[in-house]
Amino acid sequence: MSGTAVKIIPKLSLIRQFSASPERVYRCWLDAEELKKWFGGTESNKIQFVNLNPRNGARFRIGLKTTDGTLRLYGGVIKKLSLPNELVFTWARGAGGTQQAKTLVSVNFKEKNSGTELILTQEYFGDETERLENESIWRHRLDRLSEII
After folding, report:
1. How many CA atoms lie within 13 A of 81 on its CB side?
2. CATH number of the CATH domain containing 88
3. What separation in angstroms does the CA of 10 have from each of 86, 105, 137, 141?
4. How does pLDDT run across 65-117, given as a tens digit for each residue?
5. Cβ count near 71 (within 10 Å)
6. Is residue 6 part of a domain?
7. pTM, whole model, 2 decimals?
8. 96-105, pLDDT tens digit by residue?
9. Are 125 and 106 in contact (CB under 8 A)?
10. Would you state the torsion angle of the CA atoms of residues 47, 49, 55, 57, taken in this order, to the nearest 10 degrees?
């Protein structure tokens, strides 16, 4: 009897310390104007729009325009809001997160050392390459977030 091999892709987990309060860091994820400042915010990726209604079950969409004029869409569904401790959402690239394979992102905000410890976890990747790409992108975005806080 032969079995089917199941490839387990480890989840991505990043920890970052911010000097701002959990409420301030949390707001940067759910306020469209704040999100625009750090989510894209580079010469190669400019935020074109953020459609975001911060409530459980709400869909969101983010559009980034690259230097070559390509519009990249991201999006998903907010699964859990627990101000200022936790944010959980589905995440997908293309079609605003409604048609492609989705991952699950959990962001936890913990008060620590007069600031905030942010723990970002993303899981359910299709393969290791996808996980590594997302890790690089999230590291860059968290660097940008630390610059504006």
Report:
1. 15
2. 3.30.530.20
3. 21, 13, 17, 21
4. 888 888 889 999 999 999 999 999 999 987 544 456 689 999 999 999 999 99
5. 10
6. no
7. 0.88
8. 444 566 899 9
9. no
10. -100
